[in-house]
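Sample A.
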Amino acid sequence: MLKTLKKYWGYDAFRPMQDEIIQSVLDGNDTLALLPTGGGKSICFQVPALMQEGVCLVISPLIALMKDQVQNLNKRNIPAVAIYSGMHYREIDRTFDNAIYGNTKFLYLSPERLASDLTRERIKKMNINLLAIDEAHCISQWGYDFRPSYLNIADIREWMPDTPMLALTATATPKVVEDIQEKLAFRKGKKVFQKSFARDNLSYVVFKEESKQEKMLHILQKVKGTGIVYVRNRRKTKEIALFLRKKGIAADFYHAGLSSDIRSQKQEAWTNNKIRIMVSTNAFGMGIDKPDVRVVIHLDLPDSLEAYFQEAGRGGRDGKRAYAVLLYDNLDKNYLEKTYEQSFPDMTEIRQVYRALGSYFQLATGGGKGNSYAFDIVEFAQTYKLDILQTHHCLKVLKNEGWIALTDSVFEPATLKVIVTQEDLYKYQVKHPKLDNLIRTILRTYQGSFANHIKINEKQLAKFIRIPYDVLKNNLSQMAQEGIIEYVPQREDPQLIFTRERVPAENLSINSELYNFRKKRYHNNIQAAIHYATAAQCRSQLLLEYFAEKNAPKCGTCDVCLGRLDKKLPEKDYNFYKNKIQIQIQGNPTEMKELVKRFPSTKEQQILKTIDYMLDNGLLRIDEDNVIYWKG
């Protein structure tokens, strides 16, 4: 194991629990691994797969995450590929062939792919050494991000009865843990590895503020280093980033509506510390492994603690002190309650959206199963004069009920193949001199265009031969229409897949029992988030209790433990404890928990409040390892 880890990643040792999980997989056990965000989940399936003959089949829900992992593996000279909705058929066919007959070690599939007859037939021919399920909580109705397509995974196990399965997730309650094993058809000998969700270096802080923006600004001025600010919608990402820039903080915004190129540029600038603060929707963060994030701020109450825990956990992955801050006001609770009501539309609205989808894509009744389409929800809603927010919720119901699947935005470069002989192509060049330079440049720059569909960078090509981008695309389209090449333009859209045959809208049905279950669960999630924000209990304890870690110790670093809920401390008491603390640490820096232990447990709150006052007034300094220094 260590040889493989050292060879490909350069590490001398595994992180806690990784080696035990890997050994379980190598022993042939179905295994569930619960590791916190940044805990190194990918290593747990990549190492054992590389140690054995055959292909590791990885099921992952996010196209961006799949592409990122494939790219990282390829950089390490590990053959990895991905297939997902929106790819050209020929490219899918070639990728499957490489997984069956070539040297591919990792094949990433979106769960929607498993419903395809083509996919199932090709999987049967593969030598699969491990079945890895990323974001495994998506299979559970008890989870916060249920995806019906995950339920297809258990079906394929009959073709690989001796192949072990490794399911991975960062967040799962006990009910979800049980559900994952049941829905994935775990066999006897199954093992569950769960690392504590406790993050000793992450301080959880909650503030109820009338002016959340000003409080956010104060925090970012006080806490140095890079950070993430999460907001509820795309419009606010731009507004908050502009506000921060005006205040002298290098900030940018990020959301799923931006093009792939723009998102990549912004992410790279933030990763390389050219941008200090990224203001984003929840589209930012998945698959990003920046270790030195010092602060993660949520400007709105989350609608689930699972999502909040995962997003907050992107801070402090280097083990140094970091802060997870939640800011809320009186309007947040009302917003969550309103969203709850809107999230569960009635059947009339759901059928209206479903009928519009059929018309929009010109699908005949009884057809469409497995069809994938580029989908712009804004254009769709405007075409049929639908409320966009209500349309979003109706689409989510259709997704949860298994009628459709929706993917994130997917960037696919343009592809082309020359489908005439070299002699015929030369004749075409002579006949169309304006296209001669373009054809010669393609043949020189991209090898193999007569044999395979090659990927081309249209913008780069247009710039190189000095013609407008639109003119280039028109020229390529002309050549395709005239039978010289096969050409698929570059595209970047979310994909909508019909997972069942289209039925008349009046015959559309949903499982009312499951619908009501999801409605109740969503309401419970909201109440748990509100309780977290308003309860006068250690924030870390609250989160750990939610994930069934009972009797966890107080963290000593959250706003509750530091007594910020009640700042009133008599001056006499403050001066008394200040002198005691000075005696303890002057010339002798001491870790926070150790310092508190030196005083009677009955005086813990007074000591924590005094420390908080002293920190605010510059008498003390605390470093990344929670060690307190006297500054005087």
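Sample B, a different protein:
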Amino acid sequence: MDWFRYPSPVGFLDQFFVYHPEPWQDREWARLSGLPLQDVWFESADGVRLFGWYVEAAADRPVLLWCHGNAGTIINRLDNLRLLYQMGLSVFLFDYRGYGKSQSIRPSEQGLYEDAYGAYDYLVRTRKVRSERLLLFGRSLGASVAAELASQRPATGLILESSFPSVEAVAKMHYGGLPVHWFLGAEHRLIDRLPHLSLPKLIIHGDKDDIIPIELGRQVFDAAKPPKEWYVIQGAGHNDTYVVGGKAYFRQLGEFIRKAFTAW
């Protein structure tokens, strides 16, 4: 299920309510997935050792930098990764600190941002990917990470899926308006970043999402600065958007990408 400063008790509670990493499962993932997975070790902006997979479609194709949600690891995204790769996209999917094979350090809001900076810098500095080829993709909690990255690094487009305005908004939705967020250190205020981002944005939500209800996704869209697009997937919940959306979903992604990358 994707969603939702130490040593205070407030930051400690984030580990129970916000971040849900899983340990690595050591299997032959490239063979099992049928994907040309390239293992990548890199450092976050603050020096944490992180792990990810890079799949390259072609040297001149757009590169999708994927900031995933709050649960599981990159292993849980392989089916979706395959479909993005089959679209002709190169993809860099990485695990935050404390997730999977990445260094075992407690996740935190600032820590996730530092991890995303490091992933971006790896693509630009090591792989020599120009910012004109980069598209940022954030799902659920990863939407605030991708938007923070967009506020600090240049890119050509931003895709936000199953996103929410802030941890506060989600907490109030699930706990009857009680101020549970007062006891959490993480804020992930996506809604504060969106009015300042000028790059093209595609905001996607399932109308049957019972984890992050669609009205929260609509708040995200309403706060975003144009150019922006709003795409609702009928019948989709929180984690099955690309499955329920099917061909129409990937067609929408392709159209958005073609507009953002005029040379593609």
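Observation for Sample B: The first strand starts at residue 20 and ends at 21.
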